[in-house]
Amino acid sequence: MSKHLLRSKVKPFDPKKVKTIQDAFEALSNTSFQGRNLGKALDVMFQMVQEESCLKILTLSGAMVPAGMEEIVCQLIEHHIIDVVVTTGANIIHSIVNSFDPTPEHQAHYMGAEGVDDAELYKHRINRIYDIFLPEEGYGYAEDGLLQIISEKFNPSTKHILTPSELFEFLGKKLPGRGLLQVAYQNKTPIFCGATSDSELGLNLMKYRKRNNINITLDELKDIEYFANLIRKHEHYGTIIIGGGVPRNWAQQVFPYLDQMDQSTEGKQYNGYHYSVRFHTATHYDGGLSGCTISESISWGKYAKNATHQSVWVDATIGFPLIVTALFQKLGLI
Questions:
Q1: How far apart are the C-alpha atoms of 121 and 123, rounded to whole Å?
Q2: DSSP 248-307
Q3: Contact 81, 46 (CB under 8 A)
Q4: CA 54 – CA 321 distance, rounded (Å)
Q5: How far apart are CA 177 and CA 180, in angstroms?
Q6: Which of 9, 15, 120, 124 would suit a FRET pair with 305, their CA atoms being 20 to 30 Å apart?
Q7: 319: Cβ–Cβ under 8 A, 6 or more apart, which residues?
Q8: How far apart, in whole angstroms, are the C-alpha atoms of residue 96 and residue 201?
Q9: Distance set, CA 157 to CA 62, 146, 209, 310 (Å)
Q10: 3-state class of 6 per DSSP?
């Protein structure tokens, strides 16, 4: 028997020995399938966070803010566990909608259900996000509140060109309540979005242009260089990836950009991210980018060939809050 192939035995999960979420994750690392992957992901994330020179990027796709995951991101920022956020325009606007909600908790989203009559919801102007309801009036509060804030800075009849990250920083300074943009601003954490127009926020900016003559043009390309400069200032880099889509690849494509720009002019070589933990339910069999493996990304130079990484095939609304809780416990934060 080849003993080098039989290094350690499976250790059955023992609920009696589990006192914390951290205990559960460490026990899962000795089991199999996605349980083991979750346990290994905690180890990778802890290693990445412990390396002070590592620039840590969270990429956030899906409807994570409506799903109630926003506070997790806020605390990750406050504890400086993540240094950069790359997200969808949808998560941005849902955070803004929460900010302008008139209730004390600043929460505009309601517990709903999947098995409902969507035509009836439309009749009552209620938007559905799987099993979450968002009344259209929530968007109305946000549209009016944003217009008031934007009108203070951006004069009508003048063309204003700025990056999405600059817009988010400005809004974070002005928005009421507690949310992603406000906490990011307070902690000097940049937020990037490579597809701002693909959201209600983009529609609002267009409406302000047509109705109020406030012409804001977002220069998304300039943010590529801003992000690249952040990478240039560090020696190591890591990603925490929720889902896929634009946020994931926008954060990853910076290394091909650096390779093409800096190697030819300064002789520098960028080999990609050194760490990654990703939570996804996409598969790679159909060639879809959101399901592509880290190994595939290595071929593009987006990850170093010796990168420490772990993918977990799990609903992010399960895996993400649990692993962050376990990480906080492991770091002694709670």
A1: 5
A2: HHHHHTHHHHHHHHHHHHH------EEEEEEEE---STT--GGG--HHHHHTTTSEEEEE
A3: no
A4: 22
A5: 10
A6: 9
A7: 38, 41, 279, 312
A8: 9
A9: 36, 18, 9, 50
A10: coil
Amino acid at 138: G
Amino acid identity of residue 104, one-letter, is P
For the record, the structure tokens of 150 come out as 């934007």
Count the helices and strands in the chain (H runs, E runs). 14, 11
Strand partners, 127: 134
Over 70: is that where the pLDDT of 285 sits? yes
Q: How many CB atoms lie within 10 A of CB 331?
A: 14
Tokens 């896929």 belong to residue: 244
| DSSP structure string for 127-185 | EEETTEEEEHHHHHHHHHHHHHHHHHHS-TTSEEEE-HHHHHHHHHHH--SS-HHHHHH
- Dist. CA 262–CA 126, nearest whole Å: 50
pLDDT in tens, 173-223: 999 999 999 999 999 999 999 999 999 999 999 999 999 999 999 999 999
Q: How many residues make up the chain in this entry? A: 334
Which amino acid, one-letter code, is at 17?
K
8 Å CB contact between 319 and 241: no
Taking phi over 0 as left and psi of -120 to 50 as alpha, with beta for the rest, 62 belongs to left
**In angstroms, rounded to a whole number, what is the distance separating the alpha carbons of residues 295 and 231?**
21
320: three-class secondary structure by DSSP: helix
One-letter amino acid of 302: K
Give the long-range contacts of residues 318-324, CB within 8 A, separation 24 or more: 319/38, 319/41, 319/279, 320/64, 320/69, 320/72, 320/242, 320/279, 321/69, 321/72, 322/21, 322/25, 322/38, 323/25, 323/38, 323/41, 323/42, 323/45, 323/277, 324/72, 324/75, 324/76
Give the pair of three-digit tokens for residue 288.
């879809």
pLDDT tens digits for 55-86?
999 999 989 999 999 999 999 999 999 999 99
Contacting residues for 287 by C-beta, under 8 A, at least 6 apart: none
CB burial readout 181-196, b (16+ within 10 A) else e: bbbbbeeebbbbbbbb
Distance CA 58, CA 187 (A): 15
